[in-house]
Amino acid sequence: MVAVKGPAATEDQKASEKTTKRVTSAEMARHCGEGDVWVAVQGKVYDVTAWLPHHPGGDLPLLSLAGQDVTDAFVAYHPASAWRVLDRYRVATLSDYAVSEVSRDYRRLVAEFAKAGLFDRKGHGCAASLCAMAALLAGAIWLLVAGNCVAGISIGWWKRNHNAHHIACNSLDHDPDVQHMPLFAVSPRLFASITSAFYRRAMRFDAAARFLVSYQHWTFYPVMCVARVNLFAQSLLLLLAADTRTRVPGRLAELAGVAVFWVWYPWLVSRLPGGVHEHAAFVLLSFAVTGIQHVQFCLNHFSAGTYTYVGRPRGDDWFQKQTRGTLDVACPPWMDWFHGGLQFQVEHHLFPRLPRCHLRRVAPL
Length: 365
Hints:
The protein is an alpha/beta fold. It has two domains: 20-98, Flavocytochrome B2, Chain A, domain 1 (Roll); 126-307, no CATH class. It has helices spanning 7-20, 25-29, 60-64, 71-77, 83-86, 101-115, 123-137, 147-151, 155-167, 207-214, 216-225, 228-239, 251-270, 276-302, 318-324, 336-339, 345-350, 359-362; strands at 22-23, 32-33, 36-41, 44-47, 68-69, 90-94, 195-196, 201-202. It is globular. Residues 1-26 are annotated as: Disordered. It holds the Pfam family FA_desaturase. One of its GO terms (molecular function) is oxidoreductase activity, acting on paired donors, with oxidation of a pair of donors resulting in the reduction of molecular oxygen to two molecules of water.
């Protein structure tokens, strides 16, 4: 047999080395810095350092779980097409790879749902919704493609916040959705002024926090009625931040989109019948309606268990953290629209790619 030489032989040799090189979990764990990020999926080890700035979910999930097996999280968040991207980053095989019974059961459920087509979007439903919205917005159809323009909330902020919440659900030091000091404290452990890994600052339990938390049982619902204001503020704080580590891709475009919102929304309110009092009532009422979901999210998570990580989130207890940090809110089917289907928070966290219309169907399983 004639030996293959040249570039083809070199590529084959590199591919063979990636397949045969074996590392332990301890060795992989050393690759957990911003300039050296390795992860493992189903026993295969990948160097995703170069992928960080291109990851559709942002760099935060990869940095949070760097140096660990991330199979369950990868299965939860990625469609079949994402598996093809992995091969180009493979560097080794995990020699001590093992699967817990809990993870095995979870992956079996995901496979069954995929086989049943539950992860598939129903095209006719999406088309009907888009047609209805297009008819309502008529000449302003462009608003449909720019969430910043429609809601005044940064898509980049939402993605960063949402992914951090899902990766470390109900972690007092890593999950921004349970970090509401000085207004609310969801655990006595917050009285120790722990540091937020997400905001990169201490959440101090000072005199102001002590006073406000003492009355949180009275202020909770009023604050929920205007909680949307915090989303506006957090969006602007992130977009205007000088810290390059949290710099949002397309920042200027997002700022322009938010600026558009603050042009058309006040103009719309000013054109409504009535005077200042009626306009203020409209704004407060619209915020209070969205407060239904804010209350629901708090019930979903504040009522569940919280915990603190020592160091970064772990990849080997992802399933357990999702189930322990979430609760479902029971309600009749006709209320699904008001909750956006997200009252099934356990199912949403375990199967985030599952269309919301299927969450009620899989809940009994």
